Structure formats: structure tokens, C-alpha cells
Amino acid sequence: MSIKTIATTPFTDQKPGTSGLRKKVTVFQSAHYLENFVQAIFDTISAPAGSTLVLGGDGRYYNREAIQIILKMATANGFGKVLVGQGGILSTPAASAVIRKYSTYGGIILSASHNPGGPDGDFGIKYNTANGGPAPEKITEAIYARSKTLTSYKLIEAPDMALDQPGSFTLGEMQVEVIDPVADYAELMESLFDFAAIRALLGGGFRLCFGAMHAVTGPYAREILERRLGAPNGSVINGVPLPDFGGGHPDPNLTYAHELVEIMYGAEAPDFGAASDGDGDRNMILGRKFFVNPSDSLAIIAANAALAPGYAAGLAGVARSMPTSAAADRVAAKLGIPCYETPTGWKFFGNLMDAGKVTLCGEESFGTGSSHVREKDGLWAVLFWLNILAKRGLPVEEIVYRHWAEYGRNVYSRHDYEGLPSDAANALMAHLKAQFEALPGQRFGSYQVKFCDDFSYTDPIDGSLSTGQGLRIGFEDGSRIVFRLSGTGTEGATLRIYLEAFEPDPAKHGEDAQQALAELILIANELSELKLRTGREQPTVIT
Ligand code: VG1
Ligand code: CO
């Protein structure tokens, strides 16, 4: 099998966003598009000859084809071995676990996460480094720079490989090892949580429902929740991964995970509900007729961490993305550990975890995780909650209310406006920024502006600076509004408005978040001239 060098012309739009490069499937299918980006990765990382790579994806449409192409390119580029998930499948956290366990040079994850899939849906590709985490900005920027100058890529001509059975094969000089995508991950979970206690809980009449949304977590959830922990068969719904996620939007929130939400808010609702996204790194936690806000979930996990064997020794620190509520900060303060505030996206947590500064990390966007891997981890969060529930013997809702009673409640909501014209969204952000000098000191109803800024972050470990990470308007009483444009969409722009207010009074903790935040919502809409500029009356998704 000879190595071919294929001439190509560079693309100008291969700039990775919040989490890798995401485009329509049709874009990735166009001539040389995937190949160029993969070659840009290989050129940038310059792995020594013979290095090992991990490869897998969330099973979405085009996953199988892309895996075959990348294998042929990996051998032509001198890799010695690729660990590929059976059928081309690896959830994002499982890929991170495999990179770490086998000390590989890095890994390529094929996923557009929570974005819809199918022939007209989205596809994505992401490079993770040897620590198992998403490549930091300096690497993604270098990949982008390389993609703009590339004139050729390398691959071998060979028949497609059979990847549906475990085994070891050769492709050119390279070894391809097809691995069980679940085994290593499940073993890691067993080492962190009290499986015996969870098994006892599930054997004692406690009922759960896990919505896998026809995405990658189905096989993981079945193995761990049903087979290893003894939840009755059928506890995992929509557990068969499908290339188009059954036509759904694999985003575990109250809007898109509606099937699970109907079960959890219906008659005879189970005690615990959870869902995960396309690539298995997000989680939504529900009690019976009760939604746990992801920012609260992070704080509650931090406060109860010692109940899980893997965390009994204590937490080094916690980190949250800037738009995530400060609920975790309050827990950190009480525990006497540091709390870091990073830009949105898991790639900013990696250095803190590698340096041993933090154990738990979280994002308001249904992302929670710890230093057991370097990605957020959906099923891990579900198991953490089950571990807490098993040890405390209280309903989900009661755990949340008791937490608020102890720490106060950071009332929180995110309003997403999806599919806006990019020009309108950019103009809205510019309009907000233009008011920044005049706003401090101004009063709006019961709120007085304390500060405004465009969030920037200096990494405390390597000193790298990231600017333009979201517009913040902070008020004197600690409430705040944050505006950000999404970096994961593939069509137009998505505006995210994050709203947060602190409520110390337990008598008011039962209030609906939208009501409690109503005044802030109005201020946000007015300051941004939202309706005028976008024509929208209502958000697409409210969390
Ligand atoms: C969104 C979330 C962010 C998350 C990212 C990737 O990014 O807000 O918190 O890290 O998705 O998650 P954005 O730029 O659209 O706001 V996933 O599950 O797509 O890997
Ligand atoms: Co995801």
C-alpha cells in the first residue's frame, strides 16, 4: 500500500469554535474538506513516528465514513497505532478516559455534540491532547492557521476496514485496535462511586429513567445502569444510537428532552430522571416533577462530594465557566477551597486540572465533570447524583431545597435565541458594548449597575490570554446579566442571555425562576433592544 500525496486548496473557514470544528454534514462531505482539516491537525501536532492515537465518535451520520478516511490518513502520516471504538463509537468522556488510560499521544473525536445529525444535520471534529482534554486555544489556533495554507494531504489507498468486531488489524504499517467503547469507561466509573450503595437503592423500589436520546450514551447507560447497577430493563429509554438521533435534537434540556420531561412530570413519575447529549458529555438531572438547574447541580455535587468514594479525600478546588451561576463559589468558600472562573468551553479547565488546582468543573450548559477525565461527563454526573441519593436517602427536590436553605439560592436562567441573522446578533452585541461607559451607576427599577465588561481570562497556569468571552453587566446586589454569542452553531447566530440573582430567603426559594428573574429579563431585553433588533418575542429555549 503506497502513500499518496493529494493536492488540495486550503479552506478559509476551518476555525474551531467552542468545541472543535462544526459544519453541516454536506460541508464535511465536500471534496477534501475533512481531509484538509485532519491534515492540519496532524501537521500541527507533529506526533513522533509510531505514536498512538485514539479515534471514535458519537455515531452520527458520516461518522463511519470519516473514521475510514482518518485511519488511512493516520497511517500515511506515520502513526504506529490507532485505538478505535468498535463501530467507530466512543463517547467524548470515554475517549478522554481511553487517551489517559493508555497514555496515547492524543485523540480525534468526531462529534457535533448536541447539534442535530443526519444528512442535513451537523458533523464535527475535535482534537484532544495527551491529557485527554480538548486542545487548548493555542493549538486550535495553530490548526486553523495551518488549514489556511495547506496544499496537500497524505493518505493510503486501501479498502475500508471492518470495525464492528473487537480485534487487532494492520493498515499499512499501522496497527488498528478495535476496542470495546464501554469497558474502560465503566471500569473507571466503578472506581469512583459506591456501586453497592447505588445497587441497594435501585433494588429498594427507587425508580429511575435515563433518556439517551438515541445518541451515544445508550450502550454506556445500559451497561452501567441496567447491567452493573441492576436498574430494571427499560430504565434507559431511546437507548439505541441512531445516525440521525431519531430525528431529534440530542440536547438534554427541558425543550429537546421532552419525552423524558413528560415522564418525569407525569403521573407515576419515577424518583430520578436524567438525560445526556449526542456525545455523552452533558447531563440533565430531574427529580419527580422537579428540574435541577445545572449550576445548582455543580454546587450540590461539590457540597456532597465526600459521599462518593473517589472524592472522599476532599476537593482541591472547583472551577466554573463565567456564565455559570456562583452557587459553586458559595460551596467552595465554605469548604475553604479555591473557585476559578474560566471562559465557556471545557478546554479552559484542562490546565487547572493538570496542575492539581481543581477537582470538579462545571458549566451552566448541562456540563459537569471532574479530574477523572479531561472532558465533561454526562453519565458520571448521573452516577454522582445516584451516589448522593443512595447515601442521603432524600428525594432530589429535598436535597436541592436543603442546599438552598444552607447556602442561599442563586436563581438562574439562560435564554437562547437560536438561528438569528449573524448581522443582527453582532449589531446587538456592539450596541450593548457601546453603552458600557455610560451604564455604571445607572439605576433600572430595583437594580443599579455596578460594572460592565467584556470578559477576558488569563490562564493562571500558562499565562495565555483569551479575550471577547462574553459581555457582563453586574449589579450592586450581585445580580448579573451576561450576553454571549454561541460558538457551536452552524447556521446564523445563537444569542445566549444568562440571568442570575441571589435569594437568601428560604421563604422565597420555591419561586419560579422566570418570575424571580422577570425584572432582570426586562432589563436585558431593553438594554439589548432585543425585539427591535431580532424581531423575536420569545427565546427558542429557556433553561
Ligand atoms: C456550548 C455551551 C458550552 C459548552 C459547549 C460545548 O457552547 O454553552 O458551555 O462547553 O457548547 O458543549 P456555545 O459556544 O454554543 O455557547 V458540547 O456538549 O457541544 O461538547
Ligand atoms: Co456534548
Describe the structure.
The chain is of the alpha/beta class. The mean pLDDT is 96. Strand 12 and strand 13 form a beta hairpin. The protein has 3 domains: 179 residues, Alpha-D-Glucose-1,6-Bisphosphate, subunit A, domain 3 (Alpha-D-Glucose-1,6-Bisphosphate, Chain A, domain 3, 3-Layer(aba) Sandwich); 223 residues, Alpha-D-Glucose-1,6-Bisphosphate, Chain A, domain 3 (3-Layer(aba) Sandwich); 134 residues, 2-Layer Sandwich (TATA-Binding Protein). The chain has 18 helices and 27 strands. Bound molecules: alpha-D-glucose-1-phosphate-6-vanadate and cobalt (II) ion.
Explain briefly what this protein structure is.
It is built from 18 helices and 27 strands.
Q: Report strand %.
A: 25-35%
- Output mean pLDDT: 96
CATH topology of the largest domain: Alpha-D-Glucose-1,6-Bisphosphate, Chain A, domain 3
Largest sheet: 7 strands, mixed
Give the low-confidence spans: none
**Distance between the terminal alpha carbons, to the nearest Å?**
53 Å
Number of alpha- plus pi-helical segments: 18
Give the distinct bound molecules.
alpha-D-glucose-1-phosphate-6-vanadate, cobalt (II) ion
Fraction of residues in H or I helices: 25-40%
